[in-house]
Records
---
Amino acid sequence: MKTIAISNFKGGVGKTTTAGHLAYLLSFKNKVCLIDADSQGNSSQWLLTMPFDYELADVLSGTATPGEALQLVKDNFYIIPTRGKDGNLRNYGEIKLNEEPFIFDDLRQAIEGLNFDFLIYDMSPALGRVERSVLSAVDEVITPITPEMFSISGILTFTHELNKLKKNLRLNITHEKIICNNVNMSFKIHKDALDALEGNDYDVYVIPQDSEIKKAQEVNKTVFEFNAAAKSIKYYETLAGAYGN
């Protein structure tokens, strides 16, 4: 099972959008679990329309099994949700996680035991206990950004902290993919931002500005379900193609 974290310390760069759309596409050929590891619960609010009994914090605390918490999004695509309102993930991270530093390793093994091919984490814009614990249990980190210089310079900070974590915990995590979201090549600032990425040791995937993405999310759909002619679709397909889709 391949385990991927969609992570960046900066908010508003498209982590949730990237995680949800990548998981959706991969589910056409694989069994995929998306875990909403952001206490805001944005992935859960976007992809689920019905109430759910259990959230990620319940699984981590032992109140529920991963199988009990899984919610079906579509064929082969499941999510372990987090409640944005009245959720307990943040409290778990502050109070209990220090006693259970390998809990996300245990969760990974449990998800793999349910015959999933991909496990994808939608992360919060932070590097607290929950985020560090998740990162210690993944194979790969993908970093979404937006085409602005502050966002790009933030990659250096993120990479520095990730490398420290890898060294301290002796982790073997790959960090090769950058997703540049909301790009409009008619804007000089966007062109300059992409130029600044050249020469770095990253595979850069560009997702263009596409109003259909936001419209789709407003009605709890992916852009693929909302408008099959949306201009961003082929770019997401290129990203999924890196995993054999």
Note: Strands lie at 2-6, 32-37, 71-74, 77-80, 118-123, 140-145, 174-183, 203-208.
---
Amino acid sequence: MRPAIVESPFKTAEIVLANGETASIEEAKNIEYAKACCLWALDQCYSPYASHLFFTQFLDDSIPEQRKLGIEAGITWGSAADVRIFFVDRGFTEGMVYGYKASKTLPQRIKVVKLGGDWDLGWITGKPLWSDVLGRLDLRT
């Protein structure tokens, strides 16, 4: 198994869908999604680590100082992984942007995955996926 960081939405947020409509992504559903992402990663012979599932067990994500501490700790652990997998069915959130920026400072591969099915909110429709994400969020810098 190869170590992999799982990046997926966590907290409740509003996202703009590819058709211009907005959708609310709720924390409880995002947690279910993150678990499904980890199962997908295991099935692909990755050893997944989802810091947003781990640190929120004892840090309060609604307290800015604790959220920042959890993100920083997750980024520290993230440097140990060969790959960072961004799961984008439910959008690309602020926390995922932190993960992306951290990955740019590491010799780390980036993979973009959509699980599809009921998870897919239609946030992103283009191919290749990563180009669409970069374009929508202006993550080039």
Note: The mean pLDDT is 86.
---
Amino acid sequence: MAEAHELIINLVPQILPVFKWDTPFFDYCGSYFCYLNKYKDHIYLSFIDPKGQLFSEVLEIVHLKTVSKIYITDVDLLRSDALAELIIQAAVIQEATHKK
């Protein structure tokens, strides 16, 4: 999970890591951006995405009511260009949504 944490911070340097409910959250543009969670044999990265705007032709995204999740089951996915592109896409959406 540390590598995922580092990836997010490296891709979006202005992000602010915070811990809520023993879970690593990331604030961006003054609002929750995403969070990481560990479950048995994988971790998942959940983006705050109430409109379900995130899209990837490569990754399987699970859209729920207010979040979109990516299940990271191996290190290759964690290090993939597709995941990096998705994080950047989410940051651009966050910026557009929270313009001041």
Note: The helical segments are 2-11, 75-78, 81-97.
---
Amino acid sequence: MLAVSTAGAGAVQNTAQTASGQQPPVTGRGAAPTTPGAAAPPAPTTAVLTRSFTAPVGLVFNTVRPERVEQFERLLAEVQTALAASKNPTTQALAKGWRFYKAAEAGPGGTIYFVFVIEPVVAGEDYSLGKVLVEAFPDPVKLQEVWALYTGSVTGGGSLLNLTPVSATVVPAKAPAAAPATAPAPGAPAPATPPAPRTPPDSDPTRTPAR
């Protein structure tokens, strides 16, 4: 899953700012100019703000403008393709537990919720969107084209949650205790013993039937 929230999707420097103030992925055009004949600088891959989780399960909520849902879904298609095609073992490990969902319920102000579920979380790894895009698109022009799908569709930074499973222990209910026997008060007569039931003659097994 990709943490598409504006707070964690940036990966490299660029003069433009995203909807939440996060810097978009750096392209080769954003690097310092080089002198003729000098070696080109390596492609920047350091994230401005990482998206990592501390619990076994992670969630990221993203609010998308209703008129830009198709645009955001195109972004997700690019990201899912990048995750599936990656040869990087770390990215492959992230992709195994990364899932993308669209909520049926509307978000605040009529926005559309897109929820990213990460289970299981790879501890200590960065789930930021920019990291995935920089790895997948070495061409700076294509990278900025894909990044624009994101910045033009979200309304702000995404919300991140760390979830820990709850193991409920069921305690069996105890049977009610029997009421203690009440001793008769001093001087009170003992309770009468009920008489034994009388056996009708016809039910006496030793009786010989009359002829």
Note: The first helix runs from residue 69 to 85.
